[in-house]
Protein: SnoaL-like domain-containing protein
Organism: Chryseobacterium arachidis
Amino acid sequence: MSKSLKQIKNNATAVAGALLLSASVSQMNAQQNAGILGIDHVGINVPNMNQALGFFKEVLGFSPVTTLGPIPLDGTWKKTNNMNPATGPVTIKMIKAGTGASIELFEYKDSKGSTQHPGGDDIGASHIAFYTNDIKKSVEYLKSKGVQFLGEPFLMPSGDTEGETWVYFVTPWGSKMELVSYPNGKGYEKNKPATFLWSPKDAVGTQRSSEKSTVLSEAEIKKLVEGHLAIWNERNPKKREALMKEVYADDIEMVDSHFIAKGHQDINGFVDGLQQKSATSKFSHVKAIDVNHNIARLFWQNGPSEKPDAVTGMDLFVFENGKVTKLYVFVNNKK
């Protein structure tokens, strides 16, 4: 490879790493600011609570858990929520819908709101999709219960949803729902994306091997970050490698502003070279470790005992399967 081509390749790699780093930092900041973990429930209005409960319990096998109401609604609440002022109290029931988000049912007594469901292209149109590993069997069962389907199951032949089969059905009160199935995964997974869509099937023991990632506790993550510091302060390459096996994934990727290191050997070599430049320098905390789900950041300083903050910076960690898989290094300055 010519020098110019090699330089272009290195530049492209650096740009890709910088873009990925920027995206990860932006996502981490959004997660910290919003504090959102995921979908807790989906709320829907039903004309008759007993009818809806019968369908979700007897047909779909879901379990009602909590009840509120009837709750009288004042005029201010109705006005704020764009409701008819003559509508009566509301009763609310929360249903555990298998593995996934719960479903919250609202029944308004003497409702004066519209009784017409939104059309498919109306801004308020929505539906709930239920996952099944055997869509043919599920359709046959629901049909035996008198459920109306809006067509036949359709298998997606190509694209990101290749391998997914879906079909819409209607509840006894007219709401549109969906059955969906992709026991062998979807097309987009073939490209090994950084992020996989959540699926109920992952939560019941059939998670994709490339996606498996246990959410670590804050204490577990902090322990791994402390282990990371121990790695970078360890002077013995063999002991350092042993520590890496406990903290870093085998295919860990470290992204610096100037290069990308992959695997234990690359990082071990870099740390060894760094330590040879300064025999007495040591890494230490600047402040407490920040943790957000399987992401953490460490603000650090490095230098000899007489000037421990000769260099400062921040490390951003991404954890999967109990170990560090991505390490993004920010160096602030040299004092």
